[in-house]
Protein 1
Amino acid sequence: MGRAEEPTPARVTVIKPRVVLKIGEKIVDHAEFGDNFFVARIEGDRVWITGGTASLARVEVMPYDEAIDYYTARLQMDRSAENYEARGAIWLGRGEYGIAVGDFTDALALRPRHPSTLLRGVAWRNLVGHARSEAGRQAGNMTGTEVGNALSRAVTAAAGQKEKENALADFNEAIRLDPQNPVAYAVRGDYWREYHDADSMERAIADYSEAIRRDPKLLRAYEARSLAYAWKTDYAKEQSDLTAAIQLDPDSPHHYFRRGKSLVTGGNSEAAIADFQIALKIDPTNAAVLVARANLYKQLNDVEKFLADAE
């Protein structure tokens, strides 16, 4: 970051791993290397992100417009796996997945057992979505006849197959290299969960469960496994995972909101309202929670409370 008298950058990029976001001395969230934030203001050694809800340490970020050039210059002086991985992570955070794959591949050429294997898998996984979107756009021109419609479906289904295989290969290799790393299992679980079929969802649940077995405090694994259970309409297990998430992160309104919605689906309106109340106590202006509670009051024919939330 520049000095205090210099202009405040519009955005910053995180340049340290596992950075904490704080309100005062309270940790409210985490950010990873390459994550980007819009800046509200700078106060002393803290950078407040847009919305003013949390701040990061100034030494853990740099202006968004300077980050790529900074690591490119570092690579000119030191072509190390660490510098390639750092620049790759920044490209990944900006949605430049193909470029990120190149940097992670260079990192792995220098150090085959480098953690870039997992990050490259994430980049490949994201490229699957890009390939399918592009194929869908092109396939749209084929529709109109029975043959054209069938060809369109085939083109879209085949798109991203290479990237999909590369992503899974990298995730498997990351686990082989470090089978004790719970995050690797959680990330591979995310890969399986993106393919909305019963077999893939079971694989996702198995990976999240392994991640939790290795680290019972891994919040992201509970959050993600709850989504897999929701897909299976196993609401009791979804709610159980969300309860675990609440125990690990009691100040997040999102977990109460999601558990409340699950309780509504399961017919437990009273408990759902209680969860919505807690979520709104944490974040009184959360529109999604207000809408959900209003809709529930409407279902319960509680007109007065429905109108109060609907305002």
Protein 2
Amino acid sequence: MHKRKFNKQAYNQTDSACKQATVSIMKSRGYNLIGDVDHENFQKWDLEFFHPEKKITIIVENEMRENFDLLKTRYSSIHIPIRKRLSPATYYLVWNCQVDEFALIENQYLTSSPVVEITCKARGDIPSYKEEMVDVSKKNILFFKKIDSKWKLQNNNLKK
């Protein structure tokens, strides 16, 4: 089974916008960022937050997808890399490229959803390859969209 070579520069470019949006959302809900937004527990999680009144810690993992609109309208599930099953993240967020929509997946669905093998299409100088992914059903995913500066749940508009 082939895997893509990790592209740290592309990762930093897309991940930074997702992190900033996540920090903004969590701050608006009363959570404080633990550590620095630019520091990551690489291959473990992106961001960690603490709510001082509720005494709750939340860990978030972010990912950006170019095909986000297709995830919402065409597919019945979202494929998440199998390595994310080992993440201690409370939530896994999949963002669109404009960072104004995201899909929220709870950790329980990363660990309990079935694993599938998919063929990833060739792109540029990267040949096609097979990869194991967690197949998370959209019925277990919450979709949000930023409308008039507020995040709104969008699940009732989705094709399932």
Protein 3
Amino acid sequence: MASEFRKKFLSNAGLALTVNFALLAAIILLSGRISFLRSSIAGARRELNLNNQKVISLADLKKDSKIAESYFGILNRALPKKEELYLFKQEVFRLGEISGLGRPGFTFGGETASTEDAPGKVRFAVTADGEYVKIFAFMKSLEKTSYFTNLTNFDIIQRNGKFNGQLGGEVFFR
């Protein structure tokens, strides 16, 4: 009887241990899978939030582009035609005279044609001799002209008590 009890006890204990071990293994596997799924969901949520932000930004850009389109026409009308750039040269001469430098040297350089997205531009170079203050005033007045310009370099060199100003830049056209 004791032997039968012992067999049943060991059999039941073995079965209980096997079931507990199987349950423990299942819990470990499921917790790893749950952790993986939680990480995947968190990543998907981050990606969804990022995509949502991109959609909002795109909508804002579309709205702003419509506003910018109305100003593009105004800006385009403010730029001179390429054929009108000879007037810019006359403006430079006039500003030189007003600044007390006389007629400055002026040359047009290379040209970049306008595109649908960007205005065209022509490089230019200006040289003037005179007093430092007058050359500097001339450069400042050139920046304030009604033409859209980008001044790329400005050098003043002193020689024998006189100053020589050299200015380079770009003037834009439509």
Protein 4
Amino acid sequence: MKRIALSFILASAVVAPSAFAEGSKVEASVYGNLSSSTASYSGATAVTSTVIGLTGGYYITPKLVVNALVMVNGTETSGYDSQTLNIGGGVKFYFGNSAKNAVVPFVLGDIVIVSTSGTSSATGYGMQAGGGVSYFITEALSADVTGKLTYNSMSSSGTSFTTTGGLVNFGLTARF
């Protein structure tokens, strides 16, 4: 089923008409989010989390973007404070055409390298998948809302643990 869905998305991207401003080859996004996550590490549960992220992407087709991302996350819990750096890449697929005042849905997926410091340190990898909508303020600038599910697998001093959760990102994307 996953292969069929992926094949459909890739085939749609190849035959789709231009989605964005003529000549746009790259996009740049800045975002922040609200998050909800649970950590299976010493019984800690995330209480407060603040995220700032930057994404840069290149259009392979008018609707399919490959991207690189950097995301910084600060979390405070009872007895455990951390700062997390995610560096990685992924893809984003738009399901519509841009125009001023258009609302265009999209799906995305990322793979990241995760490094955490603070009360203790950990390293590992993570995956994020989700979707959202872009509201086009102009043909080349959009306000975006994205929902993502996340999974991180990390280890610290011989102890392995995972974090799972959800993110709601709010941001702006410019296309050049």
